[in-house]
Amino acid sequence: MANKAIAASAARAAPRPASGVSAFFLKHEWARGYTLLSPTLGVMIIAMCVPVFMLTAHSFWTQNYLTIDKTFTFANYVQFWEKEIYFKLLVKSIKISAIVTFTTVVLAYPMAYFMAFKVKKNKLVWLILITVPFWTSFLLRVFAWKIILGFNGVINSGLISLGLIQEPLEFLLYNPTAVIITLAHAWAAFVILPIYVSLEKIDRSLLEAATDLGDGPVSRFLRVTLPLSMPGVIAACLFVFIPTVGDYVTPKLVGGTEGIMIGNIIQSQFGKANNWPLGSALSIYMVFGITLCVLGFLLVARLITKGGSLKAS
Amino acid sequence: MNQSKAIIAIKDCSKHFGPVRAVDDISFDIDRGEFFSLLGPSGCGKTTLLRMLAGFEQPSMGNIFIDGQPMAGVPPHHRPTNMVFQNYAIFPHLNVRKNIAYGMRTSGLGRGEINAKVDEMLELIKLPGFGGRAAHQLSGGQRQRVALARALIKKPKVLLLDEPLGALDKKLREEMQLELRLLQRSVGITFVFVTHDQEEALTMSDRIAVMSMGKVLQIETPTRLYEMPNCREVAGFIGSMNFFDGRVSSAAGEAATIDAGPIGQVRGVANGRLKVNKGDAITVAIRPEKINLSNEQPNVGHNVVEGKLGPSTYLGDRSYFYVNVVGLAKPIAVASQNADRATGQHRADQKVWLTWREESVVLLDR
Amino acid sequence: MSIVASKAAKSAAHVHVPSSIMEGRPYGGLFFYAVFYLSFIYIPVLFLPLFSFNDSIYIAFPLKGFTTKWYGEMAASNGLIEALKNSLKVGTAVCIISTIFGVLAAKAMTRYRFPAKGPITGLIMLPFVVPGIILGIALLILTYSMGMELSLFTIAVSHVLLAVPFSMLVLISRMEGFDKNLEEASLDLGEGPWRTFWQVTFPLTLPGIVASLLLCFSVSFDEFILAFFLSGNEATLPIYIWSQLRFPSKLPSVLALGACIFVFSCVLVTFSEWLRRRGVQVKTASSV
Q1: How many CA atoms does the CB half-sphere of C130 hold within 13 Å?
Q2: Hey, what CATH class is C78-285 in?
C-alpha cells in the first residue's frame, strides 16, 4: 500500500518541466506580485495619473470661447496674481481648513483615548458607532447643518419658540464660522480612527514601566502616551486638512458669500464661468499651496518630536 | 526507480534576498530514510533552505534534486515533499477529518478509500474519533499531530518539519520528540527537521547539519558532532565548552602537546580532522563535564591546572563550578554529576585542581 | 522578585492594564466626554428623520404634528425613482469591480515581496487624500479629451477610483489576519494556485470580501463631490438631492429621502463593520 502510494507520488513528481513563462514566474516572486497588482495599478494610473497629467496640461492652455487654444502659455498662472481675490481665497481656504483640522484633532483626541484605554467591553460597538457616520453621506451631513443653522432653522426656531430670542439670529448661517462648524462635524469621524489606532498600538507595559519609574498620570501621558501617539495625530491632521481645502459643497450650502472658498471658484470655472484652463491652473495652485503647508507641517512636527526625544534623553 | 543512497541532493545552492545571502553556496546530500536536522540560530538560513526543498522559494543559484529529479521550476504542489509548518497551518474553516483529507483530492482515490485512510491516520496519531472536531477545539499538541497526519497521508518521499515543536511546552515537547522519532522509524520516510534547539536536534536526529550565516558548518551524527566539533562556532553552539588559546609545542602524528599559557601544557589528539604542526596557533576546547575537579594536587605534569573555586550553580542532577585560574579572563566551567547526595565538600575560594584526559581535548583551528 | 515576575507575565500576555493603574474610573469624565462627542456626531443628522415626520413645509420648531406624507410625496417622484435606480446600478457595478481590484491588490501586497511596494501602496491610496475636486475635474477633462459623453459610466469610474483603496485596505487586513502558511500548506498538499485560492484564500477572506462589497457600495451610493462633475443627464441620488435643494417646497420630501438614505447606509455599514472587525479589531482598525 505504502509502496503503491509512493510510486504514485513518484509519477506525480516525474519531471514536469515548467514551460518558460511559468518557470519565470515561479522563479521570480516580484513577477508574480506585479502581475497580480497590474490590473489595479493600471486602473489607478488610467483613472488618476493620466487625468491629473491632462489637468496640468490644460493649465498651460487657454479657453477660446467654446474651444481650447493649445498654445503653451503661463497666462493662467499670471492671471492668478493679477486679481488678488484668488490668492486671498486660497489663503482663506487654507486658514479655514487649518482651524477645522486643529479643532477636530483636539476634540477627537480624548475620544480616541477613551476608546483605546477606557473601553474594555463592547469595544466593537464603540468602534462601529464612530465609524458609521464616516461612511454616510457627506452631502446629508452638510445639509443637516444648513437646516440647523438656517435663518428659520432648528436653532433659531427652537430659541424663538422657547422665548429666549425674539428675532432669528442672523450670524448663524452664511459665514466662515458656519463652514468651520459644519466641516468639523463632517470630518469628526476621520480623525478619531488614526489617533485611536496609534493609541491602541502602544504597548501597555510601557505605561506600566513609566508608572514604575515614578511618573504620575499626567507626566506619563506627556512623556509616553502623547509622543507615541503622534504618528496617528499627524496622519489625522493630513486626512482632514488636505481634502477640506478644496471643498466646495460646504461653503456653497452654508458659507454664503462670506464663506466662499477656493473650491467654489475652481468649480465655477468648470461650470458657469466655463474657463477650464484657468480652473486647472487654480487647482494646481491649490495643490501647490496644500503641499507647501503639509511639508511645513511635517517639518515642524519632526522638529518637535526630535526636540522631545532629545529632552527625554 | 532511482535507488541511490541520497534522496535529496543539494548542489551549490544559494538564495539571495536583495543583498542578504540567506543561503550561501550550500552542497550536501540527505540519505533515504534518514532523520536529518538543520540546526542553527534564527536567521542562519535553515528555514529558507527548507522552504527551497518544499518549493516555496526558488534557489537564486544552484540546484536541488529530490530522488534524482531536478526541482528547478517545479512548483510546490508538484513536489514529492510535504511540510509540517511551524504553527501547523491547520485550516481553520475545515474540521480535523477534512484537514487530513485535504491533500487526497489529487490522489485519485474514491471517497471510501480516502475515509479509510483518514481513519488510519487518526489511529496513527492517537486521535481516533477526533475527525469531527473543529480546528480551534484542538490543543497545541493535537494540532501538531493533525498537521503531521495531513502531511503523512500523502506518503511523501520527504517530510519537511519547520520547528514543529517550538510552540509546545517543555514537557509535551519532550514527549513529542520521542513520539516523532518512533513515528519516523515506523513509516520510514525521510524527515528533514528544522530546529534552533540543539538538545532537540541531538535527541532526535540521525545526522545534523549545523548552519550559521547561510553556510553549513558541519554535518555529523549527534555523537560525533558533540564530541568532535570541527570549529569553534559549532563547539560553542552545541553544549557548552571551555576554550583556550595555545600554540603547538610538539606534534607526533595526531597527538600534540600545546602550550596553552595559563593552563600549562595540554596534550590532545587531533582526530584526523586537523593537521597540527609545531608552532601552529590553535584553540583547545574542553567540555565542562570532561573536567575532573579535585581538592588534592594530582601527580601529573600536563592536562592539569590549579585554580580557585568561584561561584557554583546546583542543577539537581549535576552542578556547575566556575574555577578562576590566574591569567585567564574567564573562569573555567566544570560540570560534575551529583552521583552522591550533594555534600557541600566544595567551598568558594577553596584551592582546587582540574584535570582532564587526552581524548577529551578537542583541537580547533584558531 | 515576584512583582517583577508578575509584571513580566502581564506584559507577556499583553492584557489590559487594570483601571487602577490607568487614571480615573471606567466611567469618569472621559466617559461623559465620549457621550457628548457621540451626540455631537449624531444629533445634527438625526434632525433629518425628525423633521421628515413633521407636518409642516417649514423646517422649524415647534413641531406641528406627525405625518408620513413627505414619504409618500418622495415615493411619488419619478426623478427620485430614476435616481435611485441609477445609484443602485452604479453602486453595484462599483462594489463588484472595486472588490475584484481590491482582492488582487491585497493578495499581491500581503503575499509577495517585490520592489517599490511602499510607493505603489501610496499611489493606490492617493484618492484617500487628494481633494475630491481635483479628481473630479481631472476626470472631467479626460472624459472630454477622449470625446466621451458624461454618463453613469464616468461616475462609476470615479467611484471605483475612490473605492479601490478602501477595498484594498479592508482585504489587506483580512488577509494579514490569517496565516500565509495556510495557502502554502494547500500548495504543499498538492493543490494548485487556482484551487488554493478557492479552497483556502476565498473562504477565509469571505467576511472581508462581503465587508468590502458593502463598503464600496455605500461609498458610491453616498458620493457627491465627484459625481457632481461627472454626471450627465442621468443623476444619482446625491445629485438628485442637490438639484432639489433649490426648491424650498421640496425640502420636506428631500428630508424624507435623506432619512431613508441615512438609515440604509447605517444598516449597510454597521453590518460590514461588524463583519470585518470581528476578531481582528485592532488590526482592522488600522486600515482606516
Answers
A1: 22
A2: mainly alpha
